Amino acid sequence: MPALAPSRFGAVLRRALWWVVLTVTGGVRRRGQLPPRGCVVVANHSSHADTAALLAALDARHRPAIGAAADYWFASPWRRRVCRILAAGFPVRRTGGGMDDLMSMTDGLRAGRAVVLFPEGTRGADGTVGAFHRGALVLAERAGVPVVPVGITGTDRLLPKHGRLRSSTVRVRIGEPLPPSATAEDARAAVAALHGGTAPEAPRDSPVRRRVAAVALSRWGLPLAFAWACAEALSWPLMPELLLGIACVAAPRAAPRLSLAALAGSLAGGLLALQLANTGHQLPAPLTTDRMRAEVRHQLAVESASAVRHQPWNGVPFKVYAAEAGRAGVPAGDWLAESARARGSRTLTVGLFFGTLGLLLHRLRRHYGAYVALLGAGFAVGLSLVVAGWS
Q1: How far is CA 378 from the centre of its chain?
Q2: pTM of the prediction?
Q3: How many CB atoms lie within 10 A of CB 337?
Q4: Please, what is the angle between helix 207-217 and helix 368-389, to 10°?
Q5: How far is it, in rounded angstroms, from Cα 58 to Cα 62?
Q6: Comparing C-alpha atoms, which of 236, 238, 225, 231 is closest to residue 348?
Q7: pLDDT tens across 169-220, in order?
């Protein structure tokens, strides 16, 4: 297989980057495709995210180049670098000289590249497609390539003009090529029809996911995560990572704070369990074995509080370490510091993993009930194997 030329390789990387970004923020869908040879792509423009949508949707073999306003994207060195590296942008002056900037792309078009332009010249604010400037049509006619209309929807919700980033599915609809002789009005009408024909459809959702997300995002979410983790550090047999796997996939935005709440609850419960064991109190410890306790006692005798660093990976419940540390007289301060390091590495990683998974599987949230069933079954099997292995 021949090696990719540098510009083609860069196009592949840019497409992968923006596909991942848009997948995380709600997904990107494409209908239609570009002609096999070079072309001028004209699209509606309502958001800075339009560029990301096109780079994610257009084939890398066309090595898309994006026309960008010179007075904005090339006004400072850092913007210029960002535009060129992440968007394959080239400057187009909006006041004098812009036509010369466009004509510099004729050789690239004849070599098979796609030149992407937003003929409205600026981002619209009301969702309608404004009047088109003629530059894109003149460029296509000069290079002898077709004009391809593209309609984009969802970017105005994903990243509104002067607004903040939020979740939204983006749709890119590629129309039939127009001849180089097409007028600006022909191109505008084609883009407007494509834009109007890509109305977003609400993704199907699971009622179970909605209920779980409502609880996770409510005022009860953090206390629940804290209480679950605290109880597990004392006696409760179900680890807090199970709760995070359920709640963080349902409500990805809540993943960081739920993870921190679970970590805080685990540390509080572990400290309480240590103090209770130190004073001779013994709490029930279901699904634990004598072999677990013997191994933990040996580790504590050799390593003291730092023995808890083994806990995230060996399957022994945290409550066993906390209780045995109390019986061994491990200082509370040392225990808290070491358990924060050990529990934090696992709890935060697991919570953020499930939050990211929830973002990536946004389009499949109607299957959330099946996911919870599989997660519960997997947890039950895993727990059985761990207990059997330590018996």
Answers
A1: 25
A2: 0.64
A3: 14
A4: 70
A5: 8
A6: 225
A7: 899 999 999 988 889 899 999 999 998 765 555 567 899 999 999 999 999 9
